[in-house]
Amino acid sequence: MPVHIEIPLDVLAGPGIAAADSRGKRKHPQAEPGAIDAAARLVDSARLLVVIAGGGSLEAGVELRRFVETSGAVLIPTAAAKGNVSDDHPQSLGSTLPMAATKELLAAADVVLAVGTELAETDHWGDRLPIQGKLIRIDIDPRSLMRDYKPDVAILADAGTALAALNPRIAPRPADLARIARVRAANAGAYRPLARKHAKVLDALREALPDDGIVVSDMTQIAYTGATQFTCRRPRSWFHPQGFGTLGYALPAAIGAKLAAPDRAVVAVAGDAGFLFTVQELATAVELELPIPILLWNNDALGQIAGDMKGRGIPEIAVKPRNPDFQALARAFHCRACQPGSLAELKTAFADSFRGVGPVLIEVHQSAAFLD
Prior knowledge:
Blueprint: H1 9-12, H2 33-45, E1 49-53, H3 61-71, E2 74-77, H4 100-108, E3 111-115, H5 121-124, E4 134-139, H6 142-145, E5 153-156, H7 159-166, H8 177-189, H9 193-208, E6 214-217, H10 221-229, E7 238-239, H11 250-260, E8 266-271, H12 272-277, H13 281-287, E9 293-298, H14 303-311, H15 326-332, E10 336-338, H16 343-355, E11 360-365
Parallel strand pairs: 1-2, 1-3, 3-4, 4-5, 6-7, 6-8, 8-9, 9-11, 10-11
């Protein structure tokens, strides 16, 4: 497909820099043996070891799982690493860094290993993580290695290379599965009524979606719940504009995902306001006959912003738009559309759309009776 790139005129008129072709010549930095030794000693000394794994660990899933299972660690993937080790692994808390029970466990850890993650604010939606213990960081980027949280041991290396060097050096220990289960239960019990509605829809999607299916989500409240609640069992199966917060991301990104991975089921998850940012891409999905279900979560508002305004005593301005008839709008693009009346109908709509031709708009309103 053609790519359109706009170059500012002042840049276009500026001097060029000739660069030698370095393709295939770059090598990943190798972990320093002394840093691996120091990390192994800290790991073996830990009473409570927590691993925070980010998107930089995606190529290191096998070594990451081996480390977690050998060391007895608690695993907390960021949203960028969902599914790298299956979210339902008994030692994983899933991508729950923003949740209170997970933060309490993290604060109690005497050793934390952060691998392939910036530990950015958008990973936990707070000012700082409550890391009180010794910190080991593994990162291929020297700037990220020292960003925000100064490590006690810094390993400048690719995640897979570093973990492969570290794994033979650590002593096997059992995990405290009961403690992990208690944190999981506390997190599940902390969901508010709206998030419980989201969870019902997401559970229906999880049942219909194959384990290697791809979810591409927009900036919408159901996706925020899904980032912590939705179970991913394969890497690169949850795509969300976590840092940029891009409204309208879901549909065009889902089209790209389906073209890149035609053998994998792909679903777009969008809110009513975000969907309208790129609704014209329905024409693209229809033309290409891509079997993409579009889960449209409709609350007739920019719900997160409206709630934040209300919570801060700010007048709710420009957050309650007059929505179109989404069913008619989809059909105007020659796209199939439906409004399931039950969870059973919702599951069937997902399953049928994966097997069909062309996209399907599946609209679920926040006020739907079957979500109460």
